[in-house]
Structures are given as structure tokens and as C-alpha cells.
Amino acid sequence: MSRILEILKVSTRLGLTSFGGPIAHLGYFHEEYVKRRKWLDEKSYADLVALCQFLPGPASSQVGIAIGIQRAGLIGGLMAWLGFTLPSAIALMIFAWVLKGLNIQHAGWLHGLMIVAVAVVAQAVWGMASKLATGKMRGTIAILSAVVTLLVPTSIVQVLIIIVSGLIGWRLFKTNSSQGIQPLQIPISRKTGIAFLSLFFAFLIILPLLRLGIHNQGLAIFDSFYRAGALVFGGGHVVLPLLQQDVVPIGWMTNAQFLAGYGAAQAVPGPLFTFSSYLGFVSKPYPNGIVGSILALIAIFLPAFLLVAGALPFWNILRSRPEFQSALAGINASVVGILIAALYNPVWTSAIKTPYDFCLAIIAFALLMIWKLPPWIVVIISALGGIVIFVLT
Predict the structure, then answer these.
(1) Rg from Cα positions in the chain
(2) CB 115 within 8 A of CB 361
(3) Total-model pTM
(4) Where does 248-321 have alpha helices with state H?
(5) Nearest alpha carbon to residue 153 among 227, 250, 57, 246
(6) Helix or strand run (H / E) with residue 348
(7) Which 8-state DSSP code applies to residue 251?
(8) What is the annotated localization of this protein (predicted)?
(9) pLDDT digit string, tens, across residues 87-102
């Protein structure tokens, strides 16, 4: 019990202070879990990060869950998730509650939040492309993925892009990585791992079928957010187009509401997937408020928990297979392309209307990339800039 409470305490502090997105989160985790508390060594931490990069979903949250499981079993993993997730989820629920009673269609500060989303996604594209889409073949996969995503903007097509890119990577990107590494000690049996993986796929198949037969928005929310959490490689920013296609066209919220929440999500610590708590809150006609928030939040993170708990017992075998890493190289390149498409639509098309908007966007981008300011400060500056633009125009 003392270990479980310790995990909850440490992860909650991280959830309150971890600004900067998934890469920054991994740095905070390394400092806290490896250097300060020595819960695991450098190599074991690197192995867990590698595992979570292989899996779809929010990589930093999955690393936290994996460390919690290693430390105190499944309950430890749950506590690690709760502590890291709830601070930002609650903050975004409060933001949604405040926003709901306001007429936001022409608010200058809202326009500033929409513009800062351009800078944040552009920063994510830049960083990911420099690591995951280098060389002619990876670059080509990224560009073709962006083109197809923009021309055929459906969730199913994005999943097919990822699958095809993985097959291309498996055939073209040969690696010879066979390291003799110390096996990770995982307190979950392979039988339990198979049970969790079976649940992951069962939800993926059964929820859409139930949604076809039962017209209930609560079920629809759970299905949409579960699918988003289950099928997105590359973390928080890449989930943006999937979520936007699932909640805006069917009238659950306006595009302005969607992008306002996305901008606010940049200003809070913790995982970007807590954006779901905002979306669930403002969804209409029912359920909305706290019920919708909880449904969306649990649904989008449930695949991450099931996948980590299911994959950990088998990771010692998988990580030694070069063809697995080759497929991942193709998948990662396609993720960059999907993110490029998201940068254009809905982020750019919704936010950049005038030269003033573009100027504010490049200033925000410079503050993030050149001056290295924390995202929450850039969000505040952009919100104020949006008010100035509203006054000037």
C-alpha cells in the first residue's frame, strides 16, 4: 500500500508541473523516476520508452503507466495514470464550464487560442519530421500520407495509411538491431497480457457495432474516443484530426469550440489527451458536463492501459526483432504526414484569415522554437494578441 500511495503522490506532482508536451514529459519522468528515486535504471527506462513508441496512444502517459506497473503491479499503473492525468483533466473541465456560458464566436482571445494552435502543431511537425521523416523514402511516405489524408479525410483512411506505411517500412527499412539486453522484470504473466490485449481488440470491434444498433450519445462518445486512443500513433497532436472529424461534423460542438479547447490544452501541464475531458464536457445534446467528460477521458486512455499491460509481458521478445523496428520506421514517417495534414486542416484553415493572424502565428512559433518559452506562456501571449487583432480589425 505504501508503494501505491507513493506512486500516486509522485505522479500527481508530475501531473501538476509537467509542461511542454510528451518529449518534455519523458525528461521529467527520467529526472524523477530514474535519477532521483532510482525506481529503475537508465537501460530499463530506455526500454520502456521504446515500447511505448511502438504502441499507438499517448506515449508519455504509457511510460508512466508502465513504470507504475513495474513498481506496484496493475494498481500501481492505475495510480500513475490518475496522478499524471487528473490535474489537467480537471483544469480543462473548469475551462469548458466557464466557456459554455459565453458567446465565443467572435471573442478576440478565442481567436488567439486558435492561432497559437497553428504554432504548436507546426512545432510538433518540425520536431517529428527532423527525427522520423529523414531521407528520401521516409520523406516520401510522409508527403504521400499528408496528401491522402487531406484528399480523403476519414478516420478509416488514416488507419489504412498507418498499416500500409508499416508494411512498406517492413519491406524497405532493414535494420540489424539485435541487442543483448537485460530482460525487464514485469509483474504480469503472459496469460494476463493476452487477456488485456483481447479486451483491447474486443472493445475496438464491439463498440462500433453497438453504436450502430443503439442510438445513445454516451455510447457514441465512448466509441469515438476509444477509437481515437486506440488507433493514433505519434501522441497528442496526431489525435487532433481524428477527434475533429468525430465531434464537429456531426454537430456535437462548433469548430471554434473545438479549437478553443485545443488552445487551452496547451496551457495546462500533463498529457494532451486530457483535451478529451474538455470535448466530453461541451458535447451536445447529451451527455454533457461532467458525465461526458468522464466518459471521454476514460475512453481515450483505456486503450493505452490495455495495450501497455498487454504488451509488457511480451516486450522482451519483440524488442529483439529487427523487422518490428523496420515496420515502425514506416509508421512513424506516415505519422508525420498525418500531422502535416492536421496543420493545414483544421488548424490553419480555421485560424489564419488575415496578415495579422499570420504575423501572430509566426511570433508564437518563434517564441516556442527560438526563445524556448513554455507553451502556457505562449498561449497567454497569443490570447492577448488575439484581443489586439480584434480591436485593430
Answers:
(1) 20
(2) yes
(3) 0.77
(4) 255-265, 275-282, 289-311, 315-318
(5) 246
(6) none
(7) T
(8) Cell membrane
(9) 999 999 999 988 776 6
